């Protein structure tokens, strides 16, 4: 059992309910690095950064901040540049930065810890010296209700560049957590704390169950002396060289296989056989070269009923390789229209009889699903991500109706394929695949033919909840790690 598993087992075995708190630092604990760095990159990229910001930022990077007063002065200098912006503009900026830059820095281990506390019914909060605008998007994705943050002064909807009180840094963060516990009737001595910075020693000392996460030098020394648990998460800011090399190999293998398959089709005019060959051989070679293995539960459910509509939760470009590898043959799908014009991939997708979905036009999107029904009637199975797009975090998004409509029209079952951790190996916007094992659980086929039209929303919500429940409480049935062989 590794450190993360031990931490989660401790949560499961400990006191449950809202009287127990779980407080997470943000920068360096839930995300790799500092969210403010992405703000400065944005300011530089858009050429909006001022000379004052440059001087303050550079001096801060060389400064060893030792107390709350010094940090407060630095923070006030930096956020003074926000003066004159509406609060909504600031919120929208950080929401965009989260989507474009910060989400990819998410520590998946931190997400797992948060979800373990939520399942235990604990009162979960992020406690950070950052502003709430930097934190809100991640908190919403993680279903974290409470945010303890440095607050900005807002007058008539406009940020004036001043603070409400002092930044939640050092002793101020510890005191904010104490006051929160008093207000919400949380037993601080039974509560958990997670942080990485030397300045967080006071905060971690305030809770009964502290854990040093990716600790800086002084915090690590303190943890060693006192005996606090230490967790080290895998870096997320950049992929290791091995992952980059593996990714190049994976895409090269898939590209070569696509070219070979399309050449075969040109000579023999057998597009279905060519598509199956590309999907099977290309995905197997690609995953092997990337060092990705598949640990699959209930594999027999992939073959119980064909044709079928296979639905998957979608977080990664890696899902394309995964799905072709486990479905193997007689598979088509629904993909975004933009993919149709991508060199090499576009011609392959057309040969594989994919339906191209224009998400900007709901009428055309509905029309694009009709060919999928026709292909199901011809004996092909269809793969669809009912969330509609890749998610930014492991959280399962709301399911759209399209997959269920075409299954009902074609009279075939829906087969849920739950992917637990593909995003850990390749996040939504990642360009590199990390080596590792993807966990998959194939649920029993679902007969949707008897669903009444007026209960469709509730039924689809129930199916989505099956995904959520399976990820939260992963089955322990015997699994087969594929390296990877064909099923028949």
Report on this model:
This protein has 488 residues and is α/β, with parallel strands linked by helices. The chain contains 18 helices and 15 strands. The strands form 2 sheets. An 8-stranded mixed sheet has the order 11-10-12-9-13-14-8-15, sandwiched between helices. A 7-stranded mixed sheet has the order 4-3-2-1-5-6-7, with helices on both faces. 42% of the residues are buried.
Beta-strand fraction estimate? 15-25%
Number of helical stretches of at least 4 residues: 18
Largest sheet, spatial ordering of strands: 11-10-12-9-13-14-8-15
Low-confidence stretches: 478-488
Q: Which percent bin holds the helix content?
A: 40-55%
Query: What structural class do you assign from the helix and strand content?
Result: alpha/beta
Q: Averaging pLDDT over every residue, what do you get? A: 89
Radius of gyration: 25 Å
Shape: globular
Query: How many DSSP E strands?
Result: 15
Distance between the termini: 35 Å
Characterize the largest beta sheet: strand count, sense, and whether it forms a barrel: 8 strands, mixed
Spell out the blueprint of helices and strands.
Blueprint: H1 3-13, E1 21-24, H2 35-45, H3 51-61, H4 68-79, H5 87-102, H6 108-119, E2 123-131, H7 132-142, E3 146-155, E4 158-164, H8 171-184, E5 192-195, H9 201-206, E6 209-213, H10 217-226, E7 230-231, H11 241-268, H12 271-290, E8 292-297, E9 309-312, H13 318-327, E10 331-336, H14 345-351, E11 355-357, H15 362-377, E12 381-384, H16 402-410, E13 414-419, H17 422-425, E14 436-442, H18 456-472, E15 480-482
Parallel strand pairs: 1-2, 1-5, 2-3, 5-6, 6-7, 8-14, 9-12, 9-13, 10-11, 10-12
Antiparallel strand pairs: 3-4, 8-15, 13-14
Helix pairs in contact: 1-6, 2-5, 5-7, 11-12, 12-13, 15-16
